[in-house]
Amino acid sequence: DIVMTQSPDSLAVSLGERATINCKSSQSVLYSSNNKNYLVWYQQKPGQPPKVLIYWASTRESGVPDRFSGSGSGTDFTLTISSLQAEDVAVYYCQQYYSTPYTFGQGTKLEIK
Amino acid sequence: EVQLVESGGGLVQPGGSLRLSCAASGFTFSGKWMHWVRQAPGQGLVWVSRINSDGTTTAYAGSVKGRFTISRDNAKNTLYLQMNSLGAEDTAVYYCAKTEAAPKHFDLWGRGTPVIVSS
Q: Contacts of residue A103 in chain B, CB cutoff 8 Å?
């Protein structure tokens, strides 16, 4: 199984400041045949299902504010929120869909400082 | 409206069984791969199972293999999860989710149905 490890487990950032969440996979999730990274970022707020933010590691989902961006390739990935807004308080998960079982990171809880 | 609505959750005794359903609407259900994902109270997300568009291939997490069975009825636009030999570790909110094609990210999620395994 591919193990997904996020860091940090929790993060407190001031409004308007940058937030960075990291995700590392135990093996590469890059398919050489199409040069795509099978990595997605979700946002989950209390009592709600996860919401897609970024897929293919760096493609923003339609309707997601452009302050959210994803980067990385192979085994190391980053979700960046360029200017934190109050509504961004949530838990963020990375997930690989390269192979079953499709594994998630443990989550990063983002709060306002 | 494009949506997934889960049902069938509830309180069940250890060793018991439960069947979850997920009703799909607003999209061509028969063309999508479907998944179950669960989340224990206060914990993270765990993928449980997936089924391809015509129901001929399935996959399971190791923790549920041999106890859970995923299936679908494309005529009824419904996904199922038959859960047997339930234990306390299966207590969670169970979400169904779809992918446009496989493998791809889960682009639509239901709101979940809670399963509590307790005596």
A: 47
Nearest to A39, CA basis, from B15, B59, B16, B104: B104
If DSSP states are collapsed to H, E and C, what string results for B17-76? CEEEEEEEECCCHHHCEEEEEEECCCCCEEEEEEECCCCCCEEECCCCCCCEEEEEECCC
Supply B10's token pair.
């509830």
Question: A40 and B105: CB-CB below 8 Å?
Answer: yes
* CA distances in angstroms from B54 to A80, B71, B73, listed in the order given: 38, 10, 9
SS3 (DSSP) at A38: coil
CB contacts of A55 in chain B (<8 Å) are: 104-105, 107
pLDDT per 10-residue tile (average), chain A, 113 residues: 97 97 98 95 97 97 97 98 97 97 97 96
DSSP one-letter code for A88: G
Closest approach of A61 to chain B, Cα-based (Å)? 9
The pLDDT tens digits for B35-46 are: 999 999 999 999
Distance of alpha carbon B25 from alpha carbon B52, whole angstroms: 18
